[in-house]
Amino acid sequence: MSGNQRPLGTGYAPYTTTMDVIRGVDLVGKVAIVTGGYAGLGLETARTLSLAGARVIVPARDVKRARSAMNDAGVSVEVRPMDLTDPASIDTFSRGFRQSGLPLHILINSAGIMASPVIERDSRGNELQFSTNHLGHFQLTAGLWEPLVRAQGARVVAVSSLGHHLSDVIFDDIGFRKRPYDGWSAYGQSKTANILFALELDRIGKEHGIRAYSLHPGGIVTNLAKHMSIDSLKAAGNLDENGEPVIDPSKDMKSIPQGAATQVWCAVGPEISNIGGVFCIDCDIASVVDPTSDRPTRGVAEYAVNPEAADRLWTLSEEVMGRPFRDLI
């Protein structure tokens, strides 16, 4: 477990917004890629980085739809085609970026899916939540390694969730070949994978000027919750009687600008310029939870910051990708 996994006391709070975090930050001359950057938290993140002067590129499966969403939001970014579940598409996108010769200062892996009610698989047979939330981003980061090194000071941000408490990575049956499929367990497993990925990436990348982070954004009602019914969201307290999102940051129910604040902080916060491989909440490093406490899911689970598990996941991910990530280093 990383010795850095303890709060810094940054002074930020659950109410902090992206504008609070970016105030005074100059990103002119910096290049950022934000997956999922055309909706929800990703869109807010792309908008914020762009306002600070960064050149922002958003990969999207549906380029026309993404550009329309950007135009509607008044956000000026570049949109390029890429499908996180299609290895060839990821390679085409990353190859094009490498050939541009640009450095990559910020990579925010924000795209994801949640709690698919029935099992789906990608073209390689991987369970789709694990494929989209982890494997696709693993391959994308590998393909962008050269531009990340070129930046001479880059950050990679993996958007995880406190949902990682729903499941460790079940290495003996990641793909639900033997056990019954459960959408929430699959989601939790993929979110644990995000944290383990950032831990190992930071260990490998820091000598090359690359630091990595994972985070919980907060409980935000976005299109990520498309598989949940209105009634279930109301019952959980996420929606009020009129079907509107409940905003109460003290209970981790945040607006989109509040929810995106932590991933923006992970990307630009000066407080962590020399710290990496950590899981963050509310624009600060989270504590490792004590399972016997009154709030056992408010920090990061021990199994999600286990270096041996991180190394094992990395090796497995290389096997799925079909080539060793470390050959790029």
Explain the overall architecture:
The protein is an alpha/beta fold and 329 residues long. The chain has a single domain, classed as NAD(P)-binding Rossmann-like Domain (Rossmann fold, 3-Layer(aba) Sandwich), CATH 3.40.50.720. It is built from eleven helices and eight strands. Helix 5 (128-143) packs parallel to helix 7 and helix 7 (183-205) crosses helix 11. The protein is globular and about 50 Å long. The protein starts with 17 loop residues before the first helix and ends in an 8-residue tail after the last helix. The model has no long low-confidence stretch (mean pLDDT 91).
Distance between the termini: 24 Å
Number of helices: 11
Categorize the overall geometry.
Answer: globular
Low-confidence stretches: none
> What is the makeup of the main sheet?
8 strands, mixed
Please state roughly what percent of the residues sit in beta strands, choosing from under 5%, 5-15%, 15-25%, 25-35%, 35-45% or over 45%: 5-15%
Name the structural class. alpha/beta
Strand order of the largest sheet: 3-2-1-4-5-6-7-8
Q: How much is the radius of gyration in Å? A: 18 Å
Helix content: 25-40%
Integer count of domains: 1
Could you tell me the mean pLDDT?
91
CATH topology: Rossmann fold
